[in-house]
Amino acid sequence: VQLQASGGGLVQAGGSLNLSCAVSGRTFSSYATGWFRQVPGKERELLATMRWSGRTTYYPDSLKARFTISRDNAKNTVYLQMNSLKPEDTAVYYCAVDQVFYSDYEPSPWEYEYWGQGTLVTVSS
Q1: Quick count: other Cβ atoms within 10 Å of Cβ 29?
Q2: Strand order in the sheet with 77-82
Q3: Do residues 103 and 52 lie in contact, with contact meaning Cβ atoms separated by under 8 Å?
Q4: Which residues touch 59 (CB under 8 Å, ≥6 apart)?
């Protein structure tokens, strides 16, 4: 399974970016998806998840005011729309997927088996 993340770049504070994560190779009948980010020297943090059922969760919940996770099953692609970006959003963003057997199962962060290579988002002030 390969995940190709894209869409990162340099944006001014208040701007928007739409990250994509294309899933290829062996395909699962059902999988959950997560978006994470990591700043050098800090632990990777979970931002948002989408269960196979379509149910989404944001960490913290207030993040949903600015970020939206979505999925196009026909394209095997997951997205993270980020609006009102702040300098503190600067990080490398990663997508990850995990095969699930129950549509509403949400993997724990350490359960995600397949990861993208990361895409850098830089927000200037």
Answers
A1: 8
A2: 2-6, 17-24, 77-82, 67-72
A3: yes
A4: 45, 46, 47, 48
pLDDT in 10s for each residue of the chain, 125 residues: 899 999 999 999 999 999 999 998 876 668 899 999 999 899 999 999 999 899 999 999 999 999 999 999 889 899 999 999 999 999 999 999 998 888 899 999 999 999 999 999 999 99
* Per-position b or e across 82-111, b if 16+ CB within 10 A of its CB: beebeeebbbbbbbbbbbbeeeebbbeeee
For residue 109, which phi and psi values (nearest 5 degrees)?
-50, -35
